[in-house]
Design brief:
Largest sheet: 5 strands, antiparallel
Helix content: 40-55%
Number of helices: 6
Number of strands: 5
Strand order of the largest sheet: 3-2-4-1-5
Distance between the termini: 31 Å
CATH topology of the largest domain: Alpha-Beta Plaits
Length: 164
């Protein structure tokens, strides 16, 4: 079961820094995402969604599976190439995960100029992910975490990842 977490930040630059960190954590295999988006509440009152390319994530996943299938048939490089291409195409073509209308509704709760990062997490190594994300601060505005987990996350954000 996936976990939704939305964290609000003062501005788009801060939210983009967090999203860069999320991307690095995905590459390190500390975090597996189903979807990720940054919503910006522009000064004119409109919401803008910034969705990172899921094609790269699809390509990496496809290459892994293609390589494994290729090993079975003694052609790992061909399998990895085919898997990467099909994974990238699937990642680019798919729009699943967090509903765009829901994201825009959350964005309306942000002050003008504010932004939020929303992630739909499939798996996470919490002791590695939380300190990396918490260093940016922020405020949890929506989650499917338990009350205790959400309070612990907010506490880490308030402390900016510093240990007590």
């Amino acid at each position: 079961m996936s976990t939704l977490v939305a964290i609000a930040y003062d501005d788009l630059d801060q939210a983009n820094e967090v999203m860069d960190t999320v991307g690095r954590l995905v590459k390190e295999h500390s975090l597996t995402l189903e979807d990720a988006v940054v919503v910006e509440h522009k000064a004119n009152g409109k919401m803008k969604l910034h969705q990172p390319s899921m094609a790269g994530l699809g390509a990496a996943s496809g290459a892994l599976w293609g390589g494994l299938i290729g090993l079975i048939f003694f052609m790992p490089f061909v399998g990895a190439a085919i898997g990467a291409a099909s994974g990238a195409a699937a990642g680019a073509a798919s729009d699943y995960g967090v509903d765009d209308d829901f994201v825009k509704e959350l964005g309306e709760k942000l002050p003008e100029g504010g932004a939020a990062v929303l992630v739909l997490v499939a798996e996470a190594t919490r002791d590695k992910v939380v300190p990396e994300i918490a260093q940016y601060g922020g405020h949890v505005i929506q989650s499917s975490l338990s009350n205790e987990q959400q309070e612990a996350l907010q506490d880490a954000l308030d402390r900016r990842g510093a240990t007590a």
